[in-house]
Design goal:
Distance between the termini: 45 Å
CATH superfamily of the largest domain: Aldolase class I
Strand order of the largest sheet: 1-2-3-4-5-6-7-8
Number of helices: 17
Number of domains: 3
Shape: globular
Largest sheet: 8 strands, parallel, barrel
Strand content: 15-25%
């Protein structure tokens, strides 16, 4: 089985999508998850473009990635200068990554109209930029920007840009369909021609989705000889997005019999897709192939009858192969497979005939109808199942809380204070704490109240906090919000969720689940 490398650029190209912004914590969390998923490369960002990306390259070194190699991205040096004086190239070197990817112009139109330099000068810039980076990079990739458009307009010059990259020391030539308008037949023909021209050098494909062909063009490139595919999770990216790795990866493995990811990686696909959607603050596309909620949903009577006898009648792959589940929309079986699948993940012993399953499904549907989503809140979902099974322990009980935010002067920030009263084992604890905003004050207060009973909470940290306003026609600021919290300790990280019209109530729900999950897991481990 031939190996195809997966190069993920969600954190760089994906972050260029309209409305998408990743925090430093988001970028770290996604990188760690893609490492467990088995992606070969993660493009962490452009260190010369902003402080956050440079901070990422510094921070990610603290995390022992087992499989994924982090790549720094940049462009060829300024035409008016030299590579050794170019701040962008020097930032890439300072990032200290084993892998460096540099983009250069391969379409003569861009050289003349965008850079406004001679064709010869562009070739020099490509070669000299790569030569400058070569001593600092274990692997050096050249993204030939607009290669397919350039090749169709001026084949000779487009190939010269590749030759300049090879002369500069590039290990990989990445052929880019930057405008996203090339047809799969054209991609296949051009990749084959380049493959014949450079039989010994690695070729990669970087496709955009402006003509809804990003996935098709990527697969066509592989069939024509490319051994690396670049793309983003869920296809997020500028304009219409990038090639969607959530469709490319299962097609490579299940349909083209190409090896990629690690053993056992593919069943994680659905979870990876939903995590990135949640962190990108994007509503997941229910109709997305492979990973969408509706990808294996059956509503028509004939379909349901057929898939019950043989799922292959209306399913092109087994849903579990990509971590998804079959859904029978008009049957009381709907949702049971999801619950059983999750229970097995958490080591809980239930089967499809257990009445508890139906109880969990019913509660899950009610909560989802209220706006809850558990894809990024595995901690809350595990606690939900434990409550249904009667194995959940109530570690504390809220008596009351009050949060005050006071602003005394216009030019000064507001002051937040939370007062809380909880009951633990019959004993009432009443305390108060300040914070950077009302949610932080509430978090500090609950910890202060509980740490004397559960000192292990001092080793738990709140690592991320997100709020999403849920669609609610005509309600404006009165709409419900969903709060997603990521917490962690030295053993693991977990997500919890809360939903309410009141942002503090939603935050309280997520905070309580976070604390309960920490105490539950510690007790389960015998600590």
């Amino acid at each position: 089985m031939k190996k195809i490398e997966i190069y993920d650029t969600t954190l760089r190209d994906g972050a260029q999508a309209e409305t998408v912004t990743f925090t430093l914590e988001d970028k770290i969390r996604i990188t760690e998850r893609l490492d467990r998923f088995g992606v070969d490369y993660v493009e962490g960002g452009w260190p010369g473009s902003n402080p956050r990306d440079m901070a990422f390259f510094k921070e990610i070194k603290k995390y022992p990635l087992k499989h994924t190699r982090v790549a720094a991205f940049g462009s060829t040096h300024n035409p008016k200068g030299a590579p050794e004086k170019d701040s962008n190239l020097k930032s890439m070197v300072r990032a200290g990554t084993r892998v460096m990817t540099i983009v250069g112009k391969s379409w003569d139109v861009h050289v003349k109209d965008a850079l406004r330099i001679s064709l010869k000068r562009n070739l020099e810039i490509i070669e000299h930029s790569l030569s400058f980076l070569r001593p600092s990079a274990k692997q050096l990739f050249f993204d030939a920007e607009h290669f397919f458009d350039g090749y169709k307009k001026n084949q000779e010059y487009a190939l010269k840009t590749l030759q300049a990259a090879v002369a500069g020391g590039a290990d990989y030539l990445i052929l880019c369909d930057t405008n996203g308008g090339t047809l799969p037949s054209e991609v296949a023909r051009i990749v084959k021609e380049v493959r014949r021209k450079y039989p010994k050098i690695f070729l990669g494909m970087h496709a955009h989705n402006d003509a809804e062909l990003g996935v098709a063009n990527s697969l066509a490139a592989v069939e024509a000889g490319a051994t690396q595919v670049q793309g983003t999770i869920n296809g997020v990216g500028e304009r219409c997005g990038n090639a969607n790795l959530c469709s490319i990866i299962p097609a490579l493995i299940l349909k083209m019999e190409r090896k990629c990811l690690i053993e056992g990686g593919l069943p994680q696909l659905h979870e990876v897709s939903r995590l990135v959607s949640e962190l990108a603050n994007i509503q997941p596309n229910s109709f997305q192939p492979y990973v969408g909620r509706s990808a294996f949903a059956h509503k028509g009577g004939i379909h349901i009858s057929a898939v019950k006898r043989n799922p292959e009648t209306y399913e092109h792959i087994p849903p579990a192969a990509v971590g998804n589940v079959q859904r029978i929309l008009i049957s009381d079986l709907s949702g049971k497979s999801t619950v059983i699948h999750k229970a097995q993940q958490y080591g809980l012993d239930i089967n499809s005939k257990d009445p508890i399953v139906l109880q969990i499904v019913k509660e899950l549907k009610e909560l989802e109808n209220q706006g809850f989503q558990f894809e990024g809140a595995e901690g809350s979902f595990e606690l939900l199942m434990n409550r249904a099974m009667g194995t959940h322990k109530k570690y504390f009980e809220l008596v009351s809380f009050r949060v005050i935010t006071q602003k005394s002067k216009e030019e000064e920030p507001p002051h937040a204070e939370a007062t809380i009263m909880v009951k633990v084992g019959g004993k009432v604890e009443h305390t108060a704490a300040e914070g950077n905003g009302p949610v932080n004050a509430l978090d500090n207060a609950i910890r202060k109240a509980l740490e004397k009973f559960y000192p292990e909470l001092s080793r738990m940290s709140l690592e991320d906090y997100k709020v999403r306003v849920l669609p609610s026609l005509g309600r404006g600021t009165g709409a419900k919000v969903r709060v997603l919290i990521e917490s962690g300790d030295r053993n693991e990280k977990w997500g919890t969720v809360g939903v309410s019209h009141d942002i503090l109530e939603a935050s309280w729900q997520a905070l309580v689940d976070s604390v309960n999950y920490k105490l539950y897991k510690d007790e389960k481990r015998g600590k």
